[in-house]
Amino acid sequence: MSEKSKKPQKLKARLPRGFVDRHAGDIRAVEEMVAKIKAVYERYGFDPVETPLFEYTDALGKFLPDSDRPNEGVFSLQDDDDQWMSLRYDLTAPLARHVAENFNEIQLPYRTYRAGYVFRNEKPGPGRFRQFMQFDADSVGAPGVQSDAEMCMMMADTLEALGIRRGDYVIRVNNRKVLDGVMEAIGLGGEENAARRLNVLRAIDKLDKFGEEGVRLLLGEGRKDESGDFTKGAGLNEEQIGKVLFFVGIKNYAESADALAALVAGTSKGAEGVEELNLIGALVSGAGYDSSRIKIDPSVVRGLEYYTGPVYEAELTFDVTNEKGEKVVFGSVGGGGRYDGLVSRFMGQPVPATGFSIGVSRLMTALKNLGKLGQDEVLAPVLVTVMDGDVEAMGRYQRFTQALRNEGIRAEMYQGNWKKFGNQLKYADRRGSPVAIIQGGDERASGVVQIKDLIEGKRLSGEIEDNATWREARVAQVTVPEAELVETVKRILAEQAEDRARAK
């Protein structure tokens, strides 16, 4: 076969791995959720800011280029001036760059929020995507832990604004300084013990999954799971393990605060961390947030290499069924903490900061589980059908369509092959259109339109057994003067809304 006779290969349509197409329902659900979150942030006096999707790679901090092509965790490309740029990994590092670059113009404390996509160059898996949305709030230039307490209160208010009831969530709070103090108290302070400290943190982070006994094994020699695989432990002795388990096992902070202070006494920052936790507890309780809403919880260890003081996590406490059919607690939907060192990388001077991030997709899943999202159904458009293709008729159909739109009613004029009228009604049915507007030559001559209630018509059609009866019945259809078109459509839509409300 000659080259000329070969058929060109069709391009295969492929969605890149780890990415998803978003459809109308999810887009509207996210917009609904984001609007409610913004309203809370604005009430607290925060203002929006937006940074670009790309940053110079060295600005991302954690992912400095250490090879010819920096690709550890981030998607990177080289600019035309040979500088490496990367898609942002989170929303915090770009904010730190923005603050440092505009430091002289920014009013401190700089209280800001932003929602946007972040990107991870990691292997995708079930529920794990390479692009997802975060919604952050940060306060830069505020050194006191009252800022951290306020963040926790704002997280609680946000969850309640989204319809999550008290008792279905808790904001858990810990402090990096206290944990560092505990590490120092058991002899794991200093840079030389960094690796062992990381193993201890990883063990603590498994408390919810494996329970106290599983963590005890991981703090010691190690743990064998059900499959027989062995995870090497942190190698602590019994005394060290006892102190760590006391710390992470604190259930009632008020009753244990003195014992915790004694444990970290003499360490470089442990006592300071305990004082900060005590102050956060006093501030939130004084504002009316009891421990069922905001709780001091030493088992919180989220991303502790990143934080320098208080850390907090928003957890949903109701049960859901996982993919194995098991009942499990839904878990974390966001969190954050104090990161006093991040802006300082650019400044050469200390710049305190605290903030939190909400995982939008995960929180949206939770709200759908609770039936708190997507309840406000978006109506399909009213369909203006086309019975005649001449210029005058088409102009009238377009005028009807615009008149409906100008009154806030979703409407569209049929755009397909108008000569097959049956196809127009089939299209309306597939779209879920609530109403169809019909005007043929006879109606046009009389200055009237037919308005068909498609929802009621569909219901009544089940009661009609033959085509002759159908044609005679003209089911759920009225004829009105053109001037009454909009008001009649409004009345029909209102009646349909009442019927839906009664059905619920």
Describe the protein's architecture and organization.
The protein has 504 residues and is α+β, with helices and mostly antiparallel strands. The chain folds into two domains: 24-179 and 250-369, Bira Bifunctional Protein, Domain 2 (BirA Bifunctional Protein, domain 2, 2-Layer Sandwich); 382-503, Anticodon-binding domain (Rossmann fold, 3-Layer(aba) Sandwich), CATH 3.40.50.800. The chain has 17 helices and 18 strands. The protein has helices at 24-43, 92-101, 146-161, 176-185, 194-204, 207-219, 238-248, 253-263, 270-286, 344-347, 360-369, 391-406, 421-431, 441-446, 454-461, 467-473, 485-503; strands at 47-48, 54-56, 76-78, 84-87, 110-119, 131-140, 169-175, 222-224, 230-232, 294-296, 310-321, 327-338, 353-359, 382-384, 411-413, 435-438, 448-453, 477-481. The protein has an eight-stranded mixed sheet with strand order 1-5-6-13-12-11-7-10. α4 (176-185) packs antiparallel against α9 (270-286) and α8 (253-263) packs antiparallel against α9 (270-286). The longest helix has 20 residues, at 24-43. 33% of the residues are buried.
